[in-house]
Amino acid sequence: MKSVIKVSSKVIAIKGSARLTDFRIAAFKSKFQPSTAIDLKELNCNEIYFACLSDINKTKDHKSLGELSNILSVEESCDFLQGDHLLVIPRIGTISPWSSKATEILHNCGINWVDRIERGFCFHLGKQRSKNKKELLNLGKLLSDRMTQEVIVNIKDASSIFSSQKPGPFKEIDIFSSGLKQLEEANSNLGLALNEDEIHYLYKNYKDTNSNPTDAELMMFAQANSEHCRHKIFNADWHIDGSASQNSLFGMIRNTHKVNPSGVLSAYEDNAAILEGYESTRFYPKNGKYEASKEKNHLVIKVETHNHPTAISPFSGAATGSGGEIRDEGATGVGAKPKAGLSGFTVSNLRIPNLLEEWEKGEDSPNRIATPLEIMIEAPIGSAAFNNEFGRPNILGYFRSFEMELLYEGKNVKFGYHKPIMLAGGLGNIKSEHVNKSEVPIGSKLVVLGGPAMLIGLGGGSASSLSSGEGDTDLDFASVQRENPEMERRCQEVLDRCWQEENNNPILFIHDVGAGGLSNAIPELVKDSGHGGLINLRDIPNAELGMTPMEIWCNESQERYVLAIDEESIETFTNFCLRERCPFSIVGEITKGNQLEVYDEHFDNYPISLSLDILFGKPPKSSRSFTTKKKDFGELEISDNDLEQLLFKVLRHPTVASKNFLITIGDRTVTGLINRDQLVGPWQVPVSDYAMTRSGFSGTSGEAMSIGERTPAAIINPAAAARISVAEAVTNILPSGISKLSDVKLSANWMGSPEKLDGDQDLYEAVEAIGMGLCPKWEIAIPVGKDSLSMSTEWEDKGQKKSVTSPLSLIISAFTAIKDINLAVTPQLIDKESELILIDLSKGSHRLGSSIASQVNSLFGGDVPDVECIKEMPNFVNTIHGLLKDKKILSYHDRSDGGLITTSIEMAFAGRLGIDIKLDLLLSNPEDVVSDLFNEELGVVIQVANEDEELVMRALDSCSLKEHSYAFGVLNKDKDIKLISEDNTIHQWSLKALLKEWNKVSYEIQSLRDNPETAKSEYLYDIDSERGGIKPSLSFKIPASFSINKTKPRLAILREQGINGQVEMAAAFDRVGFDCLDVHMTDLISGDSHLKNFQGLVACGGFSYGDVLGAGGGWATSILYNKALRDQFQEFFSNEEVFSLGICNGCQTLSLLSSLIPGSEAWPKFKRNNSEKFEARLSQVLIQKSPSIFFKDMEGSLMPIPVAHGEGRAELSKKDFSELISESLNPIVYSDDEGNLTESYPENPNGSPSGIAGVTNKSGLVTIMMPHPERAFLASQYSWHPNTWEEYGPWIKFFENAKDFVS
Questions:
Q1: How far, in Å, CA of 1167 to CA of 155, rounded?
Q2: Given this model, what pLDDT does residue 480 score?
């Protein structure tokens, strides 16, 4: 074959399909041409596959080679390596996640003559011939990822991908001949970040045991005792102004829990905190059948940061940050279920090329870290991609940019976030009986669950404890982990099978593998067992055989857990793993004593033999001190000479501007349990204050979470900044329906640089302010949190030392159980005769210090907002809850960044209504227009019907806030924001003009990150103030109840590895009367299940095999090339008494099985979205006439539905398109606001011709579609729906039709 090249006696190279679209190529040329002398005019890129063969003769067998080529979608090509080219291949000595999944697919298809397959990329440079190979290699470095890839220019060198490497030995550090100096050198060379006391502690203990330390032991000790893991500063003794403090920082945080432990089931002692939840009905498979189960549904809460890795490698740093936090939730107790996520980012000034702002000065940062703009282009995609593929909706977040050079104690000091904050958190659920970890007896097996060890993330715990710029560049890159979310999904499926066993859960103890890798996770598990442990090093799954024992033991390869399993339960656990195709290995066992031994069979020695008393002993406790200094940044005065320009600049500031570019990349509906995400109202405006989930698919209980942060204020007053952050989290979560303030629990994430400036004082004062002050007074507990106290960036430039230091940064995440999710309101203004009431919780203060209005004027000083309503807040929360319960609040939004004017405008955006703002009622002084409109004091704005205003004011009087509440605004039909004084309009802005400014940041970043054409299309869509928004119109009545037969039809809820949408699918079909069975593909392969036993089949959504062979390609291929499976599916599809449905990934898979499905000859394949990004939206679709059994009696209906996919664009020939349309085989199409089918983005999220969103076969028995009806069968699953809908949304009819067909 022309597309196959023989590389060596056992390796062939095969040309794959084109890798990059035209606009991606153009972006590459623009970015890299200035950095190379090579002409990039003809730059192009193809995938290239490298196969290591066990039988080289198969390359002469055209049938075998043809099968392999078909699976890989090979393109025929004559000498595809003509001209200059370079090859980007996986790092030699590694096995990529892509390889392990693709190889597994090939073996499942019977192609066992391929031992292993890897993927690379061939960059073509045209017919030019570069004489300088070094230039080609340098260009390759620009085009590749140094952590996982290498660059070659000779294809023969690719055979080294498959070369086996010999294991390396451990190293001893000889302290007996060279003394302490050897330890100090090891500390530097290995990047251990040990302090002087710790080095002396180790030296003494090893001397006492008469043994030399090994590099593995030292690295293990460094990780276990790093600031990242031990939190030395938070546990330190403190002296303030010469006097000893009674409390450590951690002691002050614990004080909040001591004052109010109610509702907290676990604090400070597990991977996450556990909060008491309401009794609810959970839904999951028991013995293979999905059933509802009434039980206490407790909350698991955790918020992490992943700052250093995100600075070095934004995509992977953020992805593994989210992945690590998800594992923390799953590994809580003896197994929990992650449910919904949050993410956030703080960076320095963006400096967007087409949107440079006057407050942004020139870029100045070290080359070793990414720029703020690079971080905000790549990191959010990384975080979203991991959440998407794992199957956890990300429904909450924040984004702030801040960077200023200030005169600080007589010196120019630059504050900012060159080392960014990357926040990753979320909530999950856990059973009552699984809250506590079990006793681990001697003899219990130690198991590593998940992916193999790889030489990535080495020393991450230590590296995170250093300021950016302190370490070595190679160590920086070595400390960043790589992500494999599909593997983590498989692990979670195993954990789900375990906790679903209730009292027969085989897990005794579980710990996720994060910072420090196995060297941290296994010793902690062994220590907590109260015994010792013996580990067999060579039983640890390992993808890089050349690693030393230290590298195997200490690397931070992701998607791994360490478990203790009772000997009697190993068989059960093994069966769970085999069914889910989840790798695992029994690596050791719990032993008597307290010694940790790691045996290396290869070298027949012990690279680790260390007492746990030494490893977790108590090196000298840290001590911190400071002398209190008073800060003075002078007065602050902001001119109101040009109010319009000030407003426009504030709306363009990234902290205030639309966050749409961060939101629509993330699946926010997977699980089917999301009630409130970031997007609000029929126009889906990103202004929600909080996020909320349902507890289950029935009942009214749920969980809510919010974020509060005001980090720049800490430069001036860290205590006030800390208090306002807590208070903002409260005002954000308040409209979710919380009944009392003490029900709210917090995670506190602390970032700062205690070693820099007055960092110690800032940190202490902030912790004290909430740990001993505000939170105890409000009876709010902080049962979980994290610190990252190396938030400075230092570098040298031409001999000049430079630094950027972050302010003391507290990010508060608030969580609570909600009794009734139906009480909640949003910022969407309702078109009704009403008043907007400002409830000024600052009680008349209007401090502008650190405000966005000051920042956009390059001013910094004055007083910052603080909490003035400490006494009133508990009653205020009760009052708002009562008003929500009585339906007296129409909409609600908090006052925060950008001030009251921004709050009002965002409410107007969400409701597409204008507001007359009556300044006479707000201003105590006509000269105070800027301070009153732009101050960021604590406060809320509520919309109240005219007839309810008096009642609401009486309620506010009961909590002593009536005198600080002002009815300041009324709605207008002009869609204008007007400032009115003495009946005169003194300023007026159209919503369109304001929307233009507010959406600019999102548009410009999308133009750089996504397809520029779709970015522009979305910008024009978002600023259109006249469009109608989502407007459902139904041709049928939404069913209110269903007749359930005693004998229910059996439905196969089919999934493959990587599928994540099965539970909500089963819930939807269960609701209308199906018996839903959990069927994994391994069940069909093994014969444990057969499709002939079902009346329906549903292929669910997710990322089967991580979509390594294209969307749905691996799943479909494993069926087509397995004769027994192929025959089974073909027989089922041909049976006219059963139905089949494919949703999202299931749709993509069934489209590739069209050769087995009668009447589907014209079906399309589904390709990459035109926008070149994952699309997650609430889209509107039109139901057309078709034979599909699912859409019976629904023709002509206009219905909103969630979409969440990266490859949803229908691709088909003109002939097939003509047949599809003429035969009415396209029952569902994307529509615009007026109900017309559309190809315009973003109404059509993927660019499918004629708006194709799904197709059916000629009999109507097999339907496939990209949108998700299973996430929209309940009214409460929509981010917005008409208030006339009751329990069910219109998509329940879709499922009822399936039931009617088989009844």
A1: 30
A2: 64
For residue 814, give every residue at least 6 positions away whose Cβ sits within 8 Å of its Cβ, in sequence order, or none. 705, 706, 707, 708, 729, 730, 732, 733, 744, 745, 746
Could you give the CA distance from residue 309 to residue 421 in angstroms, rounded to a whole number? Answer: 10
Rama region for 960: left / alpha / beta (φ>0; ψ in -120 to 50; rest): left
Residues 1013-1019: contacts with CB within 8 Å, 24+ apart? 1013/23, 1013/1170, 1014/1170, 1014/1171, 1014/1172, 1014/1241, 1014/1242, 1014/1247, 1015/1171, 1017/1240, 1017/1241, 1017/1242, 1018/660, 1018/1241, 1018/1242
Active site residue 1144: yes
Tokens of residue 175, six digits: 């302290």
Tokens standing for 399? 């984004």
**Contact of 175 with 144, CB cutoff 8 Å:** no
For residue 282 the two structure tokens come to: 């959970």
Q: CA–CA separation, 615 vs 218, rounded Å? A: 9
Tokens 């009668």 belong to residue: 1158
CA distance 689 to 687: 6
Encoded tokens for 327: 């594992």
Residue 580 pLDDT class (50, 70, 90 cuts):
very high
Strongest mean pLDDT among 47-61, 294-308, 923-937: 294-308
* CA–CA distances in Å: residue 1165 to residues 425, 851, 1213: 36, 51, 10
Cα separation, 829 vs 38, whole angstroms: 56
Order of all β-strands in the sheet with 532-536: 507-512, 560-565, 445-450, 584-591, 532-536, 595-600, 605-611
pLDDT tens per residue across span 1043-1070: 888 899 999 999 999 999 999 999 999 9
Q: Which residues pair with 746 in a beta bridge?
A: 814
The catalytically annotated residue of 893, 964, 1268, 1281 is: 1268
Q: Give the tokens for residue 326.
A: 């998800």
Q: How many CA atoms lie within 13 A of 417 on its CB side?
A: 26
How far, in Å, CA of 697 to CA of 226, rounded? 43
| Bridge partners, residue 978, by sequence | 916, 988
- Residue 42 three-state SS: coil
pLDDT tens for each residue of 959-971 = 999 999 999 999 9
**In 856-896, alpha helices (H):** 873-885
Q: Taking the CB of residue 79, how many other CB atoms lie within 10 A of it?
A: 10
Instruction: Write the pLDDT tens digit of every residue in 340-394.
Output: 999 999 999 999 999 999 999 888 999 889 999 999 999 999 999 999 999 999 9
Under DSSP, is residue 328 helix (H, G, I), strand (E, B) or coil? Answer: helix
Q: Catalytic residue at 1270?
A: yes
- The active-site residue out of 329, 556, 1270, 1296 is 1270
The pLDDT confidence band at residue 1086, using thresholds 50, 70 and 90, is very high
The secondary structure of 340-354 as a DSSP string is EEEEEEEES----GG
**b or e along 691-713 (b: 16 or more beta carbons within 10 Å of the residue's beta carbon)?**
bbbbbbbbbbbbbbbbbbbbbbb
The Cα–Cα gap between 793 and 467 comes to 6
Among 1287, 1282, 1143, residue whose Cα is nearest residue 694: 1287
Give residues with Cβ within 8 angstroms of 258, minimum separation 6: none
Q: Respond yes or no: is residue 501 known to be catalytic.
A: no
984-990 vs 976-981, strand pairing mode: antiparallel
d(CA 183, CA 175): 7
Q: 921 phi and psi, to 5 degrees?
A: -85, -10
What single DSSP character describes residue 774? Answer: I
Q: State the catalytic residue, choosing from 122, 554, 582, 1144.
A: 1144
Strands 1139-1143, 1096-1099: pairing kind: parallel
As beta bridge partners, residue 980 has 918, 985
Token pair of 1155, please?
């050769």
Cβ contacts of residue 779 below 8 Å, gap of 6+? 259, 260, 741, 742, 874
